[in-house]
Specification:
Elements (H helix, E strand, L loop, with lengths): L1 H13 L6 H5 L5 H5 L10 E12 L2 E9 L9 E7 L6 E7 L6 E9 L15 E8 L1 H5 L6 E8 L7 E2 L14 E9 L4 E8 L2 E7 L6 E6 L9 E12 L2 E11 L8 E9 L4 E2 L6 E2 L7 E5 L8 E5 L14 E2 L6 E8 L2 E8 L9 E2 L10 E2 L4 E7 L5 E6 L5 E7 L4 E5 L15 E5 L7 E8 L2 E6 L4 E6 L8 E6 L7 E6 L4
Parallel strand pairs: 1-20
Antiparallel strand pairs: 1-2, 2-3, 3-4, 5-6, 6-7, 7-8, 9-10, 10-11, 11-12, 13-14, 14-15, 15-16, 15-17, 18-19, 19-21, 21-22, 23-34, 24-33, 25-30, 25-34, 26-27, 26-33, 27-28, 28-29, 30-31, 31-32
Bound molecules: beta-D-fructofuranose.
The site of beta-D-fructofuranose (FRU) has 12 residues, from strand 1, strand 5, strand 9 and strand 13.
Length: 500
């Protein structure tokens, strides 16, 4: 909790922070033009961290998010709100949830309560119920331990406006400092709502028949996975795999990520309505890059599992060189499962309907003599065989470059942002990040989504994923390839973005 305390202490020193001295000290002109992404969600102004309360209904994806509207660093948390028909173009809505006397509005989820189990529906219409942590900052500062409790709010107009439930909190703290980030799903076999809650170094499972009264069912993970930091933002969901139902539990951890700071690990196993169990002892990460945190899935999307994460890292999120806003969300990703060498892995790929034009073949460019011209955002596809080292560089005219590629000797992918542009806002930012290749087939396939300030690399149909942000001083305009023995890729193409 020291982290929250420090964040709030800093905040009280600098209030009012928006458009204030903090921003003046680090004036980075043109950050709107240089870094405001086109394909990725950002708040209009102010601070954003975790995606929250995502639900889908009647053709509309709702996204809520941890938001401090009055400053560009973490502050008293609200739930911002936006909706989208295609998960690319977003409409901003008024703030959905404001802090109240119980506390700030921390991370959580939302469900469509079709059977009105909560009794909060009106006129026979299903209410949308949001379940979230309320963080009592005064309690924390006074040295209490029970300052995080779970509350609910409900909407009777399809998620546009929200009312706090009159008898909050609905799940009170048993005396554990880290007790937060409820993710709720409907479990049809047991006819119960299931809540996965991050409780210090484990995920606790609670069940309820009405979203109001919760009973503890089990704990998971004390002896499993990575424990270098506190567990946050869990998610529990079923995935269909070869006509079987496989259960996946994801949990974010900070610090302890494979490339420092924040990251999200996952476990594949079984869930019986009360207990989640896994045969696997290996720590697996949904994304090996430095910038995909607190990733959770949309509710009410049937067998389509769609996730989104916060595209930053607590290490430096509050120092990145954007002026009017801080942070973007990752591209929405479709999740599924693949078996490799007898072990099951979670794959993530960008959602299928990304609006790109027809591919331009890159063979004429990737010949070690010519550069291809880059216009952001774009998507690069590569099919490589045989497996030799290759490096692809995005560069601008002042010598800044972002390099990514594959290292055959260690069988790893990497993204290197050491020379990518502005990096000195944090000592850990300029770095080369590695990810193991999980697939064992001969041919490498890469899908790379590039926006103005981010790279998302999906290797081998999403078995290995890396997401990294970067901040060039001028836009990258060229893309070049360097490969062992000057081997060319079998296939390479660059797709430019088309406004949908
Ligand atoms: C994760 C997190 C959550 C918490 C929220 C507060 O990034 O620390 O555990 O609910 O952010 O903003």
């Amino acid at each position: 909790m020291l982290r929250f305390f420090l964040r709030s202490a800093l905040l009280s020193l600098c209030l009012p922070m928006f458009d204030s001295s903090i921003n003046a000290q680090v004036a980075f002109p043109n950050s709107e033009t240089l870094y405001r992404p086109i394909l990725h969600f950002t708040p209009q102004k102010g601070w954003m961290n975790d995606p929250n309360g995502m639900f889908y209904k009647d053709g509309l994806y709702h996204l809520f998010y941890q938001h401090y509207p009055n400053g560009t660093t973490w502050g008293p948390m609200h739930w911002g709100h936006a909706t989208s028909k295609n998960l690319i173009q977003w409409q901003h809505h008024p703030i959905a949830l404001y802090p109240d006397s119980i506390g700030l509005i921390f991370s959580g989820s939302a469900v469509v309560d079709y059977n009105n189990t909560s009794g909060l529906g009106v006129d026979g219409k299903a209410p949308i119920v949001a379940i979230f942590t309320q963080h009592d900052m005064k309690g924390e500062q006074a040295g209490k331990v029970d300052f995080q409790n779970q509350s609910i709010a409900y909407s009777n107009d399809e998620g546009l406006s929200w009312k706090m439930y009159k008898a909050n909190p609905v799940l009170t703290n048993p005396g554990i400092k880290d007790f937060r980030d409820p993710k709720v799903i409907w479990h049809a076999p047991s006819k119960k709502w299931i809540m996965a809650l991050a409780v210090k170094n484990k995920v606790s499972i609670y069940t309820s028949s009405n979203l109001i009264h919760w009973e503890k069912a089990s704990d998971f993970g004390m002896q499993l996975g990575n424990h270098d930091g506190v567990w946050e933002c869990p998610d529990l969901f079923p995935v269909k795999y070869k006509s079987k139902t496989i259960w996946v539990l994801t949990v974010s951890i900070n610090p302890g990520g494979p490339n420092k700071g924040s990251a999200t690990q996952y476990f594949i196993g079984n869930f019986d309505g009360k207990n989640f169990s896994t045969p696997s002892k290996e720590t697996k990460w949904i994304d090996y890059g430095a910038d995909n945190y607190a990733s959770v899935t949309w509710s009410n999307t049937g067998n389509n599992i769609i996730s989104m994460g916060w595209m930053s890292n607590w290490l430096y999120a509050q120092q990145v060189p954007t002026e009017n806003w801080r942070s973007a969300a990752t591209i929405a990703r479709k999740l599924d499962i693949q078996e490799v060498n007898g072990s099951l892995y979670l794959r993530s790929l960008p959602i299928a309907n990304l609006p790109f034009n027809k591919a331009e073949k890159l063979s004429k460019y990737f010949n070690h003599d010519n550069d291809a011209q880059l216009i952001f955002p774009c998507k690069l596809n590569i099919d490589a065989m045989p497996l030799e080292d290759f490096a692809i560089a995005l560069s601008n005219t002042i010598g800044e470059k972002l390099i990514f590629g594959y290292e055959a000797k260690t069988n790893r992918f990497y993204v290197d942002r050491t020379l990518s542009g502005k990096t000195n806002f944090h000592t850990d930012f300029a770095a080369r990040h590695y990810a193991p290749r999980i697939a064992n087939n001969k041919r490498i396939n890469l899908q790379v989504i590039l926006d103005k300030a981010s790279i998302e690399l999906f290797a081998d149909n999403g078995l290995t994923v890396m997401t990294d942000i970067f901040f060039p001083s001028a836009p990258y305009t060229a893309i070049t390839v360097d490969s062992k023995n000057n081997q060319l890729f079998d296939k390479a193409s660059l797709n430019n973005y088309l406004t949908p």
